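Sample intake — SusD/RagB family nutrient-binding outer membrane lipoprotein
Collected from: Rhodocytophaga rosea
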Amino acid sequence: MNSTQSNGRFLNNTRLLFVGLLISACTHSFEDINTNSNNPSTVLPKQLLAGIQRDMMHTLVNESWVIGTTVIQYTAKNTTTLVDRYIWGERNQIWDAVYDNMRDVNNILKQTSEGKENNYRGVALVLRAWLFSLVTDCYGDIPYTEAIQGKEGILSPAYDRQETIYEGILTDLAEANRLLSDAANIENDFIYGGDINKWRKLANSLRLRYLLRISGRKEVGAEMQQIVANPAEYPLFESNVDNASYTFSATAPDQFPLLALRIGSFNESRASKTLIDKLQQLQDPRLKVFFRPTPSTEATPSTDDEYTGIPNGLTDVEAIRYNGGPDFQSRISPLFYEQSITDKGLQIAKGFMMTYAELQFILAEAAQRKIIISSPETHYKNGIQASFQFYGKQVEEAYFLQNEVMFEGTDIQKLEKVLTQKWISQFFQGFEAWFDWRRTGFPSLKPGVHNENANKIPVRFIYPIIEQSLNAKNRADAILLQGPDDINTRVWWDIE
């Protein structure tokens, strides 16, 4: 072999060795190079929690503003009055938000198990119960048992009966109470700042809400009494400090959602005559928290402020001209718009899951109906006081001595007083006032004046139209059992 051949073989061997080393190096670093650190394949429960809370609260506030405050006659439209006349069409925001966020709730549940991160698992069960309650109370029968199982091959989930869904909701809350009884605090929690004891109180307080909701269909007295009688095992809200609410930020991007509206759009909603008349009748100081005086009197310091609401359900022309026009119609408080980023606004304009005032009114109703053994008047007064305190007002004894407030009269009259005060206290706090009105008929509301719904206040949302193409058979089966897919079909717990 000559020197040229020898050198050539040496060079070839060197090249092969270099290529081999290069391939080996590339192979070992292949996963690192092709892994996007900004798009992780798994996300920790604490990283999912904040997104669920934020997204649901933004959706709930927005949809509550459009539908929730008008249908229950807190506000009335003075232009573009279709919603106020019950021309709703499909309302998909709650449906979409619940099922979108339920994926992350399920991911938390999949990553946790008995004895492993019981704190996040318990909170996830509370959130699952609350989310499913929202969507079933708005629509009725919905996908539940088979929901959010696309990865398991279930692309067309069956609709469960609402009775079954409520069984699951109550089971989740009972399990959450157990898991959270000895659990560590959590991170990234914008509802309670990580305080797991408050989540446990919420689980039990929500359980009372949902037990009372189905009390027309089920015997719930023993279960409710068991919770109320044993605060060590079933702690409940004790004051406004325990309110389950989401505090928005003074700065973008997490400000109160209505702040994104144009001023003209915000001012299309005015005070409803129904609520303003009731507050004025009771000389209730919450009037000045919820509403502004008419612009004409507000702009003239020498005149007394006047508060005037609009009847719900007027036509566009009637609404804009009512009482002489917009200058003579009370607007919604600036605390829910431009002042929502002030210190006071941040304490009022919130997203709500549940409040201490609501719990007290639940207990008052349950006691008055003899479902639990307790003092209905005590809980009734506690609820009023809690609501006043939340809005920074003090209840004078004279308020309780008014005929419309004093806890006297027939059993029905007492129930009406409890539920009317509960209605006032839940101003712009989601859909709970609408759900209560559907269940009880209180407060006594008249349908919008020129409504397009056969003189009936709606009692549900229609299913998203897209379900007709993506899940047609199961939707059809649900309608066959529940009733026509319209806004007048009552859900299972809503008995006449």
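Post-analysis note: The chain has 20 helices and six strands.
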